[in-house]
Amino acid sequence: MSPRISLFTANKAASALRQSSTVACAQRSVALPLRFRDQSAPVQKRWNSSQNNKKGLSPDEQRFPTQDPLPHVGEEAAEMDRIMSKEKSCDGQPSSPELEQGSPVADILKRDKEGLKHMPKVMQDQLKKSAGGSRSFSTSARSRLPDVQNVEPQDEISAAVLADMIQQVNEQAAARLPEGLKFDVPVLPAQKKTLNFRKRYDTMQEQFTKMLMQDGKLARAQKNMSIILDHLRTSSPPNVNPRRPLMGGPPAPQLPLDPVLYLTCIIDSVAPLFRIRQQKGIAGGGTAVQVPHPLNLRQRRRAAIKWILDASEKRRDAQLAHRVANELVAVAEGRSGVWDRRDQQHKIGISGRANLGLAPRRR
């Protein structure tokens, strides 16, 4: 037979079990951190002393100035119409006429007595002539009359202007042509000016390049010539020696601006005027006589280039282009031995002028 259960005893046991479980949960919640505690447990809160109880908005609820929607086009037009029609300017006059079509100068000066006194005389005379209150000297660039009456169609104006231009051209052509000719005089082939140059490079530059060439390698000589011209262009202006000036050309500070002209001035300055020929038997016996012989422009330049190339071989630069470029700058400044060689040849030629009569003349 099963034992009997008292209801009062079971009620007391259930209440005791409920109290023990509540104490155990409280002890466990104290040991755990705050975020792991039961949300139903009472939590102490620190209240601000101020009375501001406003809650901060979340980032999604915040509104920025750029998030405001733009007004509708009709609303904007209505606002502009209200400003133009109702608002007044500082002097009490409506602002719409001044903004729309400009305010006449006469009306402005009527409100400014001091400005009316100092108005230009031309405007005063024009203001006196215009008795009908015309709007002269308006501050607006737009016309006050949108529809101009008595205006010819645009096509008729264009046709008239074109006819006038054709008539002027015909009159000028008739005045230029000789009498009795209907068309222009034909141009002969010798009188035509063409841009078809026969030579790509300057004559001086081409001659210098050909003398730089070794073993028939023209491309390498042209590359060396470009290095030389670039050195002359980027180098500082030469300090010209007054005793050995450069022939022709612009002043020294402007020479690097045109390297080809710079090179031409250097070559022409040291080019000899003649060469010395050794002739035997003209003075009797087998003695050689020094006779000067004049040179043309190309021969003079060739002699000067040869002297410069010979003098550049004595320099210690690694590349040929650098040696020649430095020698050219030395010639421009009067420091090169090419000047002494030219002076020596001129002295010999001057002393040998007496032998010109002994030399046989060529027929």
What does this structure look like?
By secondary structure, the protein is mainly α. The protein has a domain at 203-356: Orthogonal Bundle (Ribosomal Protein S7), CATH 1.10.455.10. The chain has helices at residues 7-31, 73-86, 96-100, 105-111, 113-117, 121-129, 154-176, 203-212, 218-234, 259-270, 297-312, 320-332, 338-351; strands spanning 274-280, 288-294. Strands 1-2 form a two-stranded antiparallel sheet. β1 and β2 form a beta hairpin. The longest helix is centred in the first third of the chain and has 25 residues, at 7-31. Residues 46-55, 133-142 have a biased composition (Polar residues). Residues 37-71, 84-105, 126-150 are annotated as: Disordered. It is found in: Mitochondrion.
**Amount of helix:** 40-55%
What is the beta-strand fraction? under 5%
The CATH architecture of one domain would be: Orthogonal Bundle
Biggest sheet strand order reads 1-2
Terminus-to-terminus distance: 172 Å
Q: How many strand units?
A: 2
Q: Helices and strands, in N-to-C order?
A: HHHHHHHHHHEEHHH
Largest sheet: 2 strands, antiparallel
Subcellular location: Mitochondrion
Keywords: Mitochondrion, Ribonucleoprotein, Ribosomal protein
Main location: mitochondrion
GO cellular component, one term: mitochondrion
